[in-house]
Design goal:
single chain; alpha/beta; UDP-N-acetylmuramoyl-L-alanine:D-glutamate ligase; 9-stranded mixed β-sheet; 33% helix
Length: 321
């Protein structure tokens, strides 16, 4: 799809988290028990679901976000950031009992990070919020989920999306065990290699250099768990689309990495997820959506922060191979 057809997207519903990112930049990440000097500090809008909603919206998606923030300055910042990116925030509830969720992030000179999250108001998001936002699912093309809110809420949203005929896209992050019901409601599972190995209980995943036969076996194991389509990201080595609904060689598609000099990888995975959601909502096949998302995520890693680092369609199209 070209930039000129970006407006053809169906609606995307993102259900989940909004966090204030408290980020310290440093030369290297501290070891356990160690203190290191920082080289800068920033407070930015974040949270996996808010990030994914912003990324999808900037890439042409019509996005509704369902979530919760506190009645505080961080909540106001998040509402302003998501709305400013064109996201419908009418289904984001303000909690007067819990503060806005936060993420404490350290980023080293190579762009690598570690993150600790405190749920705050995200922990109050419940199946009742999904039911109260039922109108958002009407006519939805994609429902985008992650595990930064309660599993009961994720299952309720997946069921609502499935019943509405939407493609349910589950980003299995932060990793957690999921019930078989959620696996069966999921149309596309998006995981990194570590999450995939935990989910399948199979140790290390094949690398980018592995034979297709190795990835065919991984695809079969996902299918045995009820996941017919999975997208496994491999960091700087690209990603692999595993599609048991396809035929022949299209069941395994390798997506080449886009090489950049990383400044901050925080939120790059969310940029990838949001881009996949946007392209699926526009009717693209999963492999093509993943190739587009690879470029969107690479661009995000070249800038500091999360939502402020996300690209628009024209930026991604210019960089695509």
């Amino acid at each position: 799809m070209s930039a000129g057809t970006a407006g053809a997207h169906g609606r995307i519903v993102v259900v989940g988290s909004l966090n204030a990112d408290l980020t310290i930049y440093c030369e290297r990440l501290p070891l356990p028990g160690e203190t290191v000097h920082g080289a800068g500090f920033a407070v930015n809008p974040g949270g996996k679901s808010a990030n994914q909603a912003v990324a999808a919206s900037l890439l042409g998606g019509a996005v509704s976000l369902i979530g919760a923030v506190g009645d505080d300055a961080n909540g106001e910042m998040l509402l302003s950031s998501t709305a400013g990116a064109g996201v419908d925030i009418s289904h984001v509830r303000t909690s007067h009992a819990a503060a806005t969720g936060v993420a404490a992030i350290s980023v080293d000179s190579h762009g690598e990070n570690n993150i600790i999250i405190s749920a705050g108001a995200n922990g109050t998001l419940a199946p009742a919020d999904v039911a109260a936002s039922a109108d958002a699912f009407d006519g939805a093309a994609v429902v985008c989920l992650c595990l930064e809110v309660s599993l009961e809420t994720v299952v309720a949203a997946a069921r609502r999306g499935h019943d509405a005929g939407a493609t349910v896209l589950l980003n299995l992050s932060p990793y957690g065990e999921i019930p078989q019901e959620l696996a069966e409601l999921t149309d596309v599972l998006l995981v990194n290699a570590h999450e995939a190995s935990l989910f399948l209980g199979s140790g290390d995943m094949p690398g980018a250099e592995a034979d297709d036969a190795d990835w065919y076996r991984v695809r079969e194991r996902f299918a045995e768990r009820g996941l017919q389509r999975a997208l496994v990201t491999l960091g700087a080595s690209g990603s692999v689309v595993l599609d048991s609904k396809a035929t022949g060689t299209e069941r395994v598609t390798r997506i080449s990495p886009v090489k950049v000099k990383a400044v901050d990888t925080t939120g790059a995975g969310d940029a990838f997820t949001g881009a996949v959601a946007a392209r699926l909502a526009a009717g693209e096949p999963l492999a093509e959506a993943a190739a587009f998302a690879s470029t969107a995520a690479a661009l995000a890693a070249t800038r500091k922060g999360t939502q402020a680092a996300y690209a628009e369609v024209a930026d991604v199209e210019r960089m695509r191979p």
